[in-house]
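Hey L., structure's done. Input below.
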Amino acid sequence: MKKSLLYVFAVICTMVFFTACGDDDDSNSSGNWQDLSKTYEGESVKLVMGEVTIPVDGKSVVIAASSAEKASVTLNNIIPEDKSVAIDAALKEADGTYTFTGESTVGDCVVSVNGTVKDGVASVVYTRKLTSSIVGNWSLKADAGAVYANIVTGNAQIDGMVGIIAPTVSGLIWKKVSAVNVNLPEDGIFDVSWRPIGASEDKGIGEITKIASIQYCVVDGKFMLAIDKNYVTVVTTLLGDKLKEYGVSVEDLMALLVDLGGYYGLPLSMNQNGNEITFYADKELIVSVATLAAPILQQVITDQNIKTIVEMALQLLPNAQTLEFGLNFTK
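Output:
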């Protein structure tokens, strides 16, 4: 009886030993690359654009591994050109960490990823490289050529005055600054700088746009300033009560923007001819902004004559036959 029990015990131990060895062999042969295939979001994903950490709320990375060497990496709500960008990536494994690299082209933008997956967390470093002809440093045209105005209201008296709008506004600008530059680098980070009259150095918003990852892109022929939805939410929350004081709702403000997935875009029309470009607001945007600003202007402006002119303009704008206003730049 004792020998039988010892025999059974020996058989059980042998089965357990070989089963454990078999599990080890399967793990080593597969490398667990199948475990990579899932959606990474929230605490399971980290996003860095170039050197800037990007908020992950509302964004996700989907990895679908087809083998230990290949995977599809989909960026959701991360690239302003497209809400969902799929990238064929190469996979490599070392010491339990998988590295994936690849790139894809979306319109005039080349999107590259270089990331890792370790312990269930995807760390994704990505870049946008824009190849559009608008890439470069643009300087505001000198003198009266700075301002673009194409306005036809149908009112003979008003239309007769339109010709002086552009040179008048241009003159006001050049009384304040000696230079204005819009920098559109290939990494997609928007920047504007200007030099006040008498100053020896430029002022600009470059540090802010870099930290807040304010980008630019071209969507459906429109120039878009793309702002991360997370930052827009913070700003509108802070300004909500102040806007209400002026009779403006957050909803009205948000209506000016275009939904770009993880970003809100402020759309501007543009017209490029070689080394010259005009960025301008069209009738739809101008009327929307004017309507939104009307209650604020009514409280801020104290001069009755100016108030009358503003009220007249607000009545004429929606019925204008042509309404375009912007700035002219050269490379």
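Residues 144-176+219-326 form one domain. DSSP finds eight helices and 20 strands in the chain.

-- N.
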